[in-house]
Design a protein that fits this description.
The structure is a single chain. The chain has 198 residues and is an alpha+beta fold. It contains 4 helices and 5 strands; from the N terminus they run E-E-E-E-E-H-H-H-H. A 5-stranded antiparallel beta sheet has the order 3-2-1-4-5, with no helix packed on it. The chain starts with a strand and ends in a 7-residue tail after the last helix.
Length: 198
């Protein structure tokens, strides 16, 4: 039996909140992993429908939660993963081409490849922590790694895990780190400061 209610409390960083059933006074726990067909992150005030369930300790919780304002979930097509993935792959391919053409030092190519791997792992770990109510990776750490040539890996992780793509302050700062990184690398190469390194 599906019940109707609305989200009355939501902690986006930790990925959980509470639903108040329509016409009732009891709060029901809900975790982000129990939402179906999420087109965006839940927010306070969202009308939802859900099936009542229990957690491992027998406490009431909501399962198979759907946002009442959204249509039924559709399978996610591969095209929906295209934009960020394409930008990341084009960026890495461009760096690789620059290295092979002698326009970029080898160390720059290694920096982008290694830091992208680090960034990808950090986003995966943060997504996993959000789903399991564990200790999260500070956003400042994610931004720092992205700034230090890790942003292509971040784009891949954001798209694959559907993580950190909705929260506008984070997204805006992320793209700022991308611009700063590109400008900084271009300046270092143009100034000749990387000559003789790799």
């Amino acid at each position: 039996m599906r019940l109707a209610g609305k989200i009355i409390e939501w902690n986006d960083e930790r990925g959980f909140g509470f639903i108040a059933q329509n016409g009732g006074s009891q709060r029901v726990f809900v975790h982000v992993r129990d939402f179906e067909g999420r087109a965006r992150r839940p927010v306070v005030g969202d009308p939802v429908t859900y099936e009542p369930g229990q957690d491992a300790r027998g406490r009431p919780m909501a399962t198979r939660v759907r946002n009442a304002r959204q249509p039924a979930a559709k399978p996610q097509s591969s095209t929906s993963r295209f934009p960020r993935t394409a930008v990341a792959l084009v960026a890495l391919a461009g760096v690789g081409a620059g290295v092979f053409a002698g326009l970029l030092p080898l160390v720059v190519g290694f920096a982008y490849l290694f830091m992208s791997g680090v960034s990808y792992f950090m986003y995966w770990a943060d997504k996993s922590a959000a789903q399991n109510d564990a200790r999260r990776t500070p956003e400042a750490n994610l931004h720092l790694v992205d700034l230090l040539c890790g942003w292509p890996g971040a784009l891949l992780a954001q798209q694959q895990f559907r993580h950190k793509t909705v929260k506008q302050p984070f997204v805006a700062l992320f793209w700022l780190t991308v611009l700063i990184n590109i400008a900084s690398v271009a300046w270092l190469v143009h100034s000749g400061m990387l000559e003789g390194i790799g």
